[in-house]
Amino acid sequence: MVHRQDYRRREQAYVKHYVLEHYLQQLALKIGHYRPGTTLNYIDGFSGPWQQATEALRDTSPHVALTQLCAARDLLRARQIELRVRGMFVETGREAFALLQGLLDEQFASVESAAHNGEFEAHIQQACRFAEQGPQPFAFVFIDPTGWTGYGLKAITPLLKIRRSEVLINFMTKDITRFVDDGESVALQSFIDLFGDATYREAWRGLADLDREDRIVETYCDRVLRAGGFAHCVPTVVLNPRHDRTCYHLVYATRSLHGLVAFRDTEREVTPEQRAARAEAKQRERLQRGQTEMFEAPVMETSYMAELQQRYHRRARAALADRLRDAGEVEFPTLVGDGLRLPMTCLADVKDWLNAWRDAGEVEFLGLAPGERARAIDKKHRVRWRGGRLS
């Protein structure tokens, strides 16, 4: 389990690892129960470890991921359900690679692992083969670079196209938004590689601030979705620990609406953790400047995260309203997919908005069995617009 105290001065990594830990836990258990005998192939394209604060490397992505996958495997085995766990790791640094090998050999010897010292893009074909090995293979690909190079969209497309797979990409927003519009930069080719072609800047032309940032991230998500043939590709926000601005986005791609719902549930779980980590980081900075405080760190936290959530809730609610007004009658899973495209929005939010519109007489629910009240994404439930503002 990740612990905040292991991530002082890199609280953004704590948030990232919290998401990775809790989502992988759910994924492994659900896959194991749904399809016993599955081989879960975990692929980490920029493994490290680096900037670790613990001797056991428990604050690194390989340790976080394998700990959760092995725990899920062992829990399923206790229930007589077989889940095979395998791991492929790619790291370019020699010192980090030596630490990685030691971690795999000493702490995760029970996992069939393949470690490669080199560039991720040079190992895409090996990753594709690895992803499809084993009985009933399912791959989870984690791409966690320190910048925006080394995972060009065309280069990783064969891996994205693996049908039974999900992908989590660390999109380094703070750096990308700073340099992406510089047409004369020596980094121009790297952005063409990142987005897949040279037309990427058209999508956010004329936009500024958060509107521009959101459109840049949405553009990347859309290109990943199309390159891999995913059903859903969405971002979640990881903020700068000490300032009210974005550090990076975690971009998640899946072909399953159930996966999208689970990812947004994980995001909801991490929100209070991110808020607490930011509050503590800001307080430490103030105390180091000699400032004295009467209140606990959370009391002094800004409202920025709440304002972001309100922003995305307004957009998500408007997307649902537009869909209903345009189509008149919409399947419930379609509305869920529309609502959960935006960060900080989960299935419970979508249900709450629809319930409010139903209570106001603006929509009605169709397809529910007698006595059935809850709408489900795996049933033929529908929502019909009956007129009104859907505000």
TrEMBL record:
InterPro entries referenced in this protein's UniProt entry, alphabetically: Tcm_partner
The record, for NCBIfam families, names: tcm_partner
Name the UniProt record assigns to this protein:
Three-Cys-motif partner protein TcmP
